[in-house]
Amino acid sequence: MIFRIGKLCLALVAVLSMVIVPAEAASRIKDIASLQSGRENQLIGYGLVVGLQGTGDSLRSAPFTAQSLRAMLQNLGISTQDNESRSKNIAAVLVTANLPPFASPGSRIDVTVGSLGDSTSLRGGTLVMTSLSGADGQIYAVAQGSVVVTGFSAQGDAASVTQGVTTSGRVPNGAIIERELPAKFKDGFNLVLQLRNPDFSTAVGMAAAINNYGKTQFGGSLAEARDSQSVVIDKPKMADLSRLMADIENLVVETDVPARVVINERTGTIVIGQDVRIAQVAVSYGTLTVQVSETPTVVQPEPFSRGRTEIEPNTTIQASEEGGTVAILNGSNLRSLVAGLNSIGVKPDGIISILQGIKTAGALQAELVLQ
Description:
Radius of gyration: 32 Å
Number of strands: 22
Number of domains: 3
Low-confidence stretches: 1-23
Oligomer: single chain
């Protein structure tokens, strides 16, 4: 398996050596930034899933499930005092959802449910009416519906098969929004755009593109780059914010990113950015392999002697060294950098060690990110 990953990563490096992506790429504002007032809000709730085929919580092991069951039945007018239920067709779940921006009451959103007790599967269950609250404690949605589980589990007396996760699932369009957010989009005096990848060059370029649009449409500048992440747009007096945002989000700007090398040592993945530069260095890479083999032999005593059978140790040690070639790397661009690494003829784990050594030597003009 490690050999396959190594071949895959070598192929990736080879592709990077042939395909060069421009340092600056043109992108629409809607693809690189989001509206500050248009962010999502997280909702959470606690509920019960019923109708399970004996795969629910053990009420003795999950006392909160039994308490929730009694409370639900009492709200429905059913007395459960002095009655202990042993049903395993019910499970306590945590319900989560994301409230989209500008959501209006009556619209529906998807919810995700996850088991809290020792339930083995939520397949075939139905989520009972559950209120979903925000960080302020207010209820914004109510969820109910059939739980869709993608995982599968089957077991017998001597074997079991499990595929995927059966203790979590989704309820498509399972929540109805009951309350809208207090903030109104058109009540604001300005718009704040937040870059998904903060960068001063991109923020200044975005502000310049919006100002060019403002001078053409309204006769003046509209935007100002507050920092590397935020661009503030002043609302023209006679402009409609919805139409203004629709025009601005389709403007094309030049994006820029810092030079960065991302390394994942667990999978052997190496991603090298376009602007990565390496000062001229000499690199030598060699691998020393030592193999120790134990082949003990049994020694028998002579016939009619009083000797004992002994085991004679036999150790074989083989040492081999590969590589050791000294190469000069001068990465003026991505093509020459990857070509220089490939010329040494090392695998991705070796390239990772080389890049770390080059960074320690101060010759790597980029940020090294280890995952």
